[in-house]
């Protein structure tokens, strides 16, 4: 019996809700399928049929998952990924200091499951790469085209198939970013009352530390994330800069969630975008409630890690930020990018992809936005190359 079947059979409410939810939403989706076949009356005239229906399906799915509070279990064994899977042991506790370590947090580092695509980085090859003894990126000198991607997408509270998504990202990166790319899709702990901030940040930091431990020089690493995953990339970058640790050669953010507050969710709920974008209000509310630590006031430093808008910071890494013009949180993303660019010494590029919704990059197979995702990757590649 699968884990999901066990959960539902032990919680009758979920079964009843599932039947009721889809008995209402399947007819609604069929109605939208008919309506969206007529271009002039689509909710978003700029979208094609596949994007319109993909967004509607994702929005319904996110609402369903948020109400039943279903979280996909992390993959902690090889499974179908076989030798491409790696279980990363927690690094030495001294790596986690300040807001990421005791006594600031009760959250302890745990093993991290990750999947390589198209194949793992050969340790011997990584160790032989030029510059593998560099401790820092020389400020002012553009790094060479980075070769290795450390990725994680999805929300703070929802998971994706790591094998499928790592393959999708790797395929795009190979053709449109850097032909020698190896993608490590790291699975952070999904947010809950047991695993609020900084659990997910600890996991992504452990994955980055693992890649460096293979002999890959920091300047050959790109941290890449989308939505909440992009938020976590920013948190790791902030931590590396604050602690004087080796920073990666680049960072690529798609649709970063930069304002993780209840007030921001309320504003989104009143926006026009909340009626057509893939983001759904219950999902955002769940993410805020689960990721933000409960029962204590947060310091300004912690706020900067959790909700980076209005908390810019200095970093050596080149930072590429992308958002669709029809993203429901586009304004907060563009404002954050400007704030980062205004910090002396930062190298930031903000790129708008016209007429795209939130997170069109990771969800391109469903939304039919592969062409736009590839163009954004090429733009990021050119920026990182300097």
From TrEMBL:
One protein family per Pfam: Abhydrolase_3
InterPro entries per record: AB_hydrolase_3 (IPR013094), AB_hydrolase_fold (IPR029058), GDXG_lipolytic_enzyme (IPR050300)
Gene3D superfamilies: alpha/beta hydrolase
Alpha/beta hydrolase fold-3 domain span: 152-361
Source organism of the structure: Apiospora hydei
Domain of life: Eukaryota
Name the record gives this protein: Alpha/beta-Hydrolase
Record lineage: Eukaryota, Fungi, Dikarya, Ascomycota, Pezizomycotina
Keywords: Hydrolase
């Amino acid at each position: 019996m699968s884990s999901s079947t066990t959960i539902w059979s032990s919680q009758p409410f979920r079964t009843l809700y599932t039947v009721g939810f889809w008995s209402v939403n399947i007819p609604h989706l069929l109605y939208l399928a008919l309506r969206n076949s007529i271009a002039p009356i689509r909710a978003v005239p700029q979208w094609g049929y596949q994007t319109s229906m993909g967004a509607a399906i994702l929005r319904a799915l996110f609402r369903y998952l948020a109400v039943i509070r279903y979280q996909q279990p992390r993959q902690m064994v090889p499974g179908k990924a076989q030798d491409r899977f790696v279980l990363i042991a927690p690094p030495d506790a001294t790596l986690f200091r300040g807001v990421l370590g005791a006594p600031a947090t009760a959250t302890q580092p745990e093993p991290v499951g990750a999947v390589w695509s198209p194949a793992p980085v050969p340790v011997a090859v990584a160790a032989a790469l030029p510059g593998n003894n560099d401790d820092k990126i020389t400020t002012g000198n553009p790094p060479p085209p980075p070769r290795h991607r450390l990725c994680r997408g999805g929300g703070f509270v929802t998971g994706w198939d790591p094998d499928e998504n790592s393959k999708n990202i790797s395929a795009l990166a190979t053709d449109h970013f850097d032909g020698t790319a190896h993608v490590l899709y790291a699975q952070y702990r999904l947010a809950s009352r047991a695993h609020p901030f900084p659990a997910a940040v600890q996991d992504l930091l452990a994955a980055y530390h693992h890649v460096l431990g293979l002999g890959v020089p920091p300047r050959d690493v790109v941290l890449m994330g989308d939505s909440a995953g992009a938020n976590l990339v920013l948190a790791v970058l902030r931590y590396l800069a604050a602690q004087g640790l080796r920073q990666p050669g680049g960072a690529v953010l798609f649709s970063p969630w930069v304002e993780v507050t209840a007030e921001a969710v309320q504003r989104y709920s009143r926006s026009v975008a909340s009626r057509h974008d893939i983001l759904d209000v219950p999902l955002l509310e769940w993410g805020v409630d689960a990721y933000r630590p409960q029962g204590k006031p947060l310091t300004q430093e912690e706020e900067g890690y959790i909700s980076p808008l209005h908390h810019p910071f200095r970093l050596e890494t080149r930072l590429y930020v992308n958002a669709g013009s029809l993203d429901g949180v586009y304004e907060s993303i563009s404002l954050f990018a400007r704030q980062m660019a205004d910090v002396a010494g930062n190298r930031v590029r903000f790129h708008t992809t016209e007429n795209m919704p939130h997170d069109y990059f990771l969800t391109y197979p469903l939304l039919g936005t592969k062409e736009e995702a590839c163009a954004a990757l090429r733009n990021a590649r050119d920026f990182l190359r300097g």
